[in-house]
Amino acid sequence: MKQYRPTTSGIRFRTGHEFTDITRDTPEKSLLVTFAKTGGRNSNGHTTSRFIGGGHKKRYRIIDFKRNKLDVPASVAEIEYDPNRTARLALLHYADGTKTYIVAPTTLKQGDKILSSDKEIDINVGNALLLKNIPTGTSIYNIELKPNAGGQMVRSAGCMAQLMGKEGKYGQVKLPSGEMRKVLLTCRATVGQVSNLDHENISIGKAGRVRWMGKRPHNRGTAMNPVDHPHGGGHGRDHGGRHPVSPTGVPTKGYKTRNNKATDKFIIRRRRG
Fold first, then answer.
1. Quick count: other Cβ atoms within 10 Å of Cβ 6?
2. Region label for 234, one of left (φ > 0), alpha (ψ between -120 and 50) or beta (otherwise)
3. Helices (H), the chain
4. pLDDT at residue 80, rounded to an integer
């Protein structure tokens, strides 16, 4: 993690990445697509998501979350930065000439060989296997919720899940939140832990750096008028006289909004806290 000399008040408390793990500055052009911004507006120009706007221009990297190129060995050509996510990317060169990006795990280095397969293969970092072929206790990430749908869980920097057990056609996976969830053993996951462990220790340091991320200032509901927010109005610094709610009146601070009853049966234990 990079520290700065406090030559200005803007960088006095700022910390950043050293990028020592990055091996190339420019991305693979064949895997780039344009990334349009909405500014939080819909097709009519109305704000539907507050506090979104600006930000640095960036292009999206096409990432292979499915890892469905089976039994074809690939070598890690580069470890790259991705402006759209907290983790690093690994550029893979397959033996048949195909190039793809994957979310890079820690300890994966330039020149390493990795493989994706439905068969039993070595449990090496970066290899993608079906859960039924992964030993209990292994650290995994980029986990599918449905077979061949692509990894959807555990993709942020420094995250990892653990395969705790197998019962019937389901595996029991402990997620970073502490939730224990049943996942079909025919779903695929990648061995290892997501890269860029220092991300959680970064101090933004100044407001302008948040604007570069595309986030506008977030103003308090108590500072608004009653027409704009349920907390608005009052004399002086009034707190509204009610439990905190969102602009639409939904209670905040721990109120459960999950309403997907179809998948309740897959959750063995809820998250911590």
1. 11
2. left
3. 207-212
4. 97
- pTM for the complete prediction? 0.91
Question: Cβ(217)–Cβ(223) under 8 Å?
Answer: no
In sequence order, the 6+-apart residues with CB closer than 8 A to the CB of 119 are 71, 133
> Residues with Cβ < 8 Å from 88, sequence gap 6 or more?
21, 22, 79, 80, 81, 82, 103, 104, 195, 196
Cβ neighbors of 31 (< 8 A, separation 6 or more) are 61, 62, 91, 99, 100, 101
Over the chain (273 residues), the average pLDDT of each successive run of 10 is 92 93 95 94 95 96 97 97 97 96 97 96 96 97 97 97 96 96 97 96 94 95 94 89 92 91 94 68
For residue 10, which phi and psi values (nearest 5 degrees)? Answer: -70, -25
Residue 240's pLDDT is: 76
For residue 247, give the 3-state DSSP assignment.
coil
Both tokens assigned to 100: 């793809």
Q: What is the pLDDT of residue 41?
A: 96
Picking from 121, 89, 122, the residue whose alpha carbon sits closest to that of residue 21 is 89
- Please give the CATH architecture assigned to the domain spanning 18-199: Beta Barrel (2.40)
The sign one gets for the Cα dihedral 158, 145, 90, 36 is: negative
For residue 75, the Cα-to-chain-centroid distance in whole angstroms is 24
CA distance linking residue 208 with residue 119, whole number of Å? 50
